UniProtKB/TrEMBL annotation:
Originating species: Allochromatium palmeri
Keyword S-adenosyl-L-methionine attributed: no
Role summary: Chaperone involved in the correct folding and assembly of outer membrane proteins. Recognizes specific patterns of aromatic residues and the orientation of their side chains, which are found more frequently in integral outer membrane proteins. May act in both early periplasmic and late outer membrane-associated steps of protein maturation.
Pfam families: Rotamase (PF00639), SurA_N (PF09312)
GO annotations of cellular component type: outer membrane-bounded periplasmic space
Native organism taxonomy: Bacteria, Pseudomonadati, Pseudomonadota, Gammaproteobacteria, Chromatiales
Protein's name in the database: Chaperone SurA
One BP term from GO: protein folding
HAMAP family named in the record: Chaperone_SurA
Keywords of the record: Chaperone, Isomerase, Periplasm, Repeat, Rotamase, Signal
MF terms (GO), sorted A to Z: peptide binding; peptidyl-prolyl cis-trans isomerase activity; unfolded protein binding
Keyword set includes Isomerase: yes
Coiled-coil boundaries: none
Domain notes from UniProt: The PPIase activity resides only in the second parvulin domain. The N-terminal region and the C-terminal tail are necessary and sufficient for the chaperone activity of SurA. The PPIase activity is dispensable for SurA to function as a chaperone. The N-terminal region and the C-terminal tail are also required for porin recognition.
């Protein structure tokens, strides 16, 4: 049985290195390569104060080859494959080191929950997942630690980058003025990508050489060459081993460099080479999902906020809200208690009223609680970046896909676009500031694993 775990290629603007996203894609089919124990512990790379050893490299290669086979993509020459896989391991090491500095960890309960989720999505029990993986040549312990590493990377990127992303109302206004009509035509696009990398401060000759190579590849692709196979063998992008597949993008979340192409390329069409500081990019429009009319669920809610400070601890705030909730359940008026007790002065004057709230209008912790509540219910105390809350859902309604929905979509798209691009810059900086020494000699690149 093949296991397919959906994977989103997060990064594509920088050359060389490749990152497992949180949604690992590991496909084991009839062509999987058994992973045999090998006494290979030679150091192949030094990464700050850590090392990557030969056995790690070969183990990762053994994970990659079945994926390529399952997709029907030709395995590239071992020289290219080893280089890309080693770059992937180096970036993983750097993120693990940064997470350790910040005290970010993945506890066993979280890991077990993730593994159970992977098994469930594939219609398997955890024991069946283990058997299927090991039958395909992948040690379950390796898979388990890979999953832990991906969760760690996701948490690290969230803390270092994603949580810092903000989208202002003027940005939403400008986005809608520019792109609202086109959002109605296309909802999502799936892109493929090839990067021909340039070094930092390239010479005119290097630029010309890279541009000529990109043009030759465009000619090959338009002549019928398989994009995925060309990407695996020729691309310097971090998603090369996935056939250049960038996955699905909401319109507006497409990286800025190719945002116009997302609206103009037809399915299957290949772009001309695009220049960026990283090199020359070739884009293929793999699939398009047309936009369909939608409704948005709006919620009318009210809340009471208790902030913490030097005097009021988390425990104090929670206990105070538990007492207020008990009084509300016993019949006291929510609005009266909100006016007397809420630290959100803006809504307290209105009895805690927040009015009609669209998806994406509140912080995730608040929205999650609000969406889970039935109409008329009052939540348990919960914490957000603003303090401790209880909230009550008063009413829900379906609003036609109008300006409200477009603004929600625009805000979400801009957040994703900013997060993608900021993550790219953060990863680039992480790599640039590290000490990395490759010790695998060039003759070893092409040796059979």
């Amino acid at each position: 049985m093949a296991i397919s775990l959906n994977r989103r290629a997060l990064a594509w603007l920088t050359p060389g290195w490749s990152l497992w996203g949180l949604g690992l894609m590991l496909v084991l089919g009839a062509h999987s390569v058994p992973l045999t124990a090998q006494p290979l512990d030679a150091i192949v790379a030094v990464v700050n104060d850590n090392v990557v050893v030969q056995s790690e490299l070969e183990r990762e290669i053994a994970l990659v080859i079945p994926q390529l086979n399952q997709r029907g993509t030709a395995v590239p020459p071992l020289t290219q494959l080893r280089k890309q896989v080693l770059d992937r391991l180096i970036l993983k090491q750097l993120q693990q080191q940064r997470a350790k500095e910040l005290g970010i960890q993945v506890d066993e309960a979280t890991l077990e929950e993730a593994l159970q989720g992977i098994a469930s999505r594939n219609g398997l029990s955890l024991d069946e997942l283990k058997v299927t993986l090991e039958t395909g040549g992948v040690r379950f312990e390796d898979f388990r630690e890979d999953t832990r590493s991906q969760i760690l990377s996701s948490r690290l990127q969230s803390q270092e980058v994603v949580r810092k992303i903000q989208v202002s109302e003027p940005e939403v206004d400008r986005f809608l003025a520019r792109e609202s009509s086109r959002l109605i035509e296309r909802e999502q696009v799936r892109l493929q990508h090839i990067l021909i990398a340039l070094p930092e401060n390239p010479s005119p000759a290097q630029i010309e050489q890279a541009e000529n190579k990109a043009k030759r590849l465009v000619a090959r692709l338009r002549g019928g060459a398989d994009f995925a196979e060309v990407a695996v063998s020729e691309s310097d992008g971090r998603n090369a081993l996935e056939g250049g597949d960038l996955g699905w993008f909401e319109m507006g979340a497409v990286p800025s460099l190719v945002s116009n192409l997302a609206y103009t390329l037809a399915e299957g069409e290949i772009s001309e080479p695009l220049r960026s500081p990283s090199g020359f990019h070739i884009i293929r429009m793999r699939e398009i999902k047309a936009a369909t009319p939608e409704d948005v669920t709006q919620t009318r809610a009210r809340h009471i906020l208790v902030r913490t400070n030097e005097i009021v601890s988390d425990a104090d705030a929670r206990q105070r809200l538990l007492q207020l909730r008990e009084r509300i359940i016993n019949g006291e008026d929510f609005a009266t208690l909100a006016r007397a007790n809420s630290d959100d002065t803006g809504s307290a004057l209105k009895g805690g009223e927040l009015g009609w709230v669209d998806p994406g209008d509140t912080v995730p912790e608040f929205e999650q609680q609000m969406q889970a509540l039935a109409v008329g219910a009052t939540s348990e105390p919960f914490k957000s970046p603003f303090g401790w809350h209880i909230l009550q859902v008063e009413e829900r309604r379906q609003q036609s896909a109008s300006e409200d929905l477009l603004r929600v979509k625009a805000r979400e798209a801009l957040q994703r676009r900013k997060a993608e691009e900021a993550t790219e810059e953060w990863l680039r900086q992480l790599r640039d500031e590290a000490y990395v020494e490759i010790r695998l000699d060039q003759d070893s690149w092409s040796q059979t694993p």
